[in-house]
Amino acid sequence: QEISLKYGAERLGKRQDADMKRFRDNRLGAFIHWGLYAIPGGEWNGEMYGGAAEWLKAWAKVPADEWLKLMEQWNPTRFNPKAWAKMAKKMGVKYVKITTKHHEGFCLWPSKYTQYTVAQTPYKKDILGEMVKAYNDEGIDVHFYFSVLDWSHPDYRYDIKSEEDEIAFARFLEFTDNQLKELATRYPTVKDFWFDGTWDASIKKNGWWTAHVEQMLKEMLPGVTVNSRLRADDYGKRHFDSNGHLMGDYESAYERRLSDPVKDLKVTRWDWEACMTVPENQWGYHKDWSLSYVKTPLEVLERIVHAVSMGGNMVVNFGPQPDGDFRSEEKELADAVGRWMSVNGECIYGCDYAGWDKQAWGYYTRKGKEVYMVVFNSPYSRHLVVKTPKDVKITKAVVLNGKEVGVKETARNEYNVDMPAKDSGAPFVIKLQIEDNTNAADKYR
Ligand SMILES: C[C@@H]1N[C@@H](c2cn(-c3ccccc3)nn2)[C@H](O)[C@@H]1O
C-alpha cells in the first residue's frame, strides 16, 4: 500500500522521450572537475594530503576566506577549450559533465549572485561559456555538475536547528535558485543537471525545494535530465522516494563503485549513470598520483563496459591542471580509450542490458536483435561459452573489425563460440546475430 507524497517521484518507469533516449544512448561521458582546488593540488602549507584534492579545504581545515584567496592565482594560461573538445571527441565520449561550482563555491561562470567567480580572477573570462561552445561545436553534449553544498556562502546550513537557521537557509535556497536559473538562461544547450552536495540534514528537511528545482529546470529547459541525487521526498528519503520509486530521471548513486553483474541485477530495471576516478579517489587535480592506485586504461575500459552491460552510463573523470592543460596520464588514457572505441564503439553506444547470464570471459551488451560479447578474459579452452535464454538461438558470430567465427551448439541453449584466429592482445568484441522466438512461444501458449 503506497503512501501519498507531495514531493515524491514525478513519474514511474523509464522516460522514453527523445532527450532521455539521447542521454541513454550516449552511454560514455567524461567528468571535468576544475576549480580553485587544482591550484594547491592536494598540498597545503608544505604538507601533502592524500584525501580527495577537491576536498583539501576540509582536510587542511582552511577557512573559506583564506581558501578563496586562491582566486588571485586563477589564471589558466594554457587553457585551450578547442583542444579539450578535440581530446574528448577522440576519446569517444558523447557528453562532458562540467563542475560549474563545486563545494568550495567558486563559479566557472561570471555569476551575478556571488563575488567568487572567474570574473573576479586574473583570467576574467567566462570559462564555462568557452567550454560549452567548444564541446557543442564538436557535437558533444554538455551536462552541468552543480554542488548545492557551498562552503563559501554564509547562509549555508548543515542542519536546521533554529529560527535563525530557517531564515538563513531560506536565503541560501533562493541564492541557489538564482544561480540555477542563471545557468539555464546563459547556457540553454545544457542537457543535464547533476546535483551533488545534497546529503546534509538541511536539504533532507527541504525535500519540497528539491522537487521545485527539478520542476523549475524542466520548465526552463524542456527535455533536460536531472539526477536522483538532487532529490529528497516529503520525509527526507533520497534517490528513491518513500514508496521506493526513483526520483529524478536516472539513479546517480554509483560513484566509484558498480553493482555486481551476477548478484545484483536490480539496476537493470531503471536508468542510471555511474562515475569513476582514475586514481582511487581524486576528482580534482592532485599533484601526486603515486599516493594511491591508478587504474590502467584497460581497467577504465572494463568499468565502462560493465556499466553498459547493466543498462547504465559511465562518466570517466578528468582533473585538469591549474594551467589549463591535462596531465600526461589523462591524455594517454583518453587516447587509449578512444582507439578501442573507434573499433568497438558499436557495442557501447545505443546499447543496453542483454538479459543473458554473465560468463567468465566478459560482458554482454545488446542493441535490438544484436548481442555483443565483449571479451576481457580469453579462456585457455579457446571456447567462449554462451548460454542463451529459452527460445533464443545464435545464428552467426562475427568479430568486430574481423572475421566470422564458428558457433557450435553443445546443449540446449548452450554454445561454444570460437575465439578469433588472430589475438589482438586487447579486449575484443564478437557480434552475435540471434533468432529470438520468445514472444512466438507466448503466442501459441
Ligand atoms: C562526484 C564526487 N562527489 C564529491 C564527493 C562527495 N563525497 C562525500 C563523501 C562522504 C560523505 C558525503 C559526501 N565525497 N566526494 C566529490 O568531491 C566529487 O565531486
Write the layout of secondary structure elements.
Blueprint: H1 18-26, E1 28-32, E2 43-44, E3 47-48, H2 56-59, H3 64-67, H4 81-91, E4 95-101, H5 127-137, E5 141-147, H6 163-186, E6 192-196, H7 201-204, H8 207-220, E7 225-226, E8 272-276, H9 297-309, E9 312-318, H10 328-344, E10 362-367, E11 370-375, E12 383-387, E13 392-399, E14 407-411, E15 414-418, E16 428-436, H11 438-444
Helix pairs in contact: 4-5, 4-10, 6-8, 9-10
The structure holds the ligand C[C@@H]1N[C@@H](c2cn(-c3ccccc3)nn2)[C@H](O)[C@@H]1O.
In words, what does this structure look like?
This protein is an alpha/beta fold. Helices cover 27% and strands 19% of the residues. The chain contains eleven helices and 16 strands. A seven-stranded parallel beta sheet has the order 7-6-5-4-1-9-8, with helices on both faces. It has a four-stranded antiparallel beta sheet with strand order 10-11-16-13. The protein has a three-stranded antiparallel beta sheet with strand order 12-15-14, with no helix packed on it. Helix 4 packs across helix 5 and helix 6 runs parallel beside helix 8. The structure holds ligand 2OX. The site of the ligand C[C@@H]1N[C@@H](c2cn(-c3ccccc3)nn2)[C@H](O)[C@@H]1O has 9 residues, from loops.
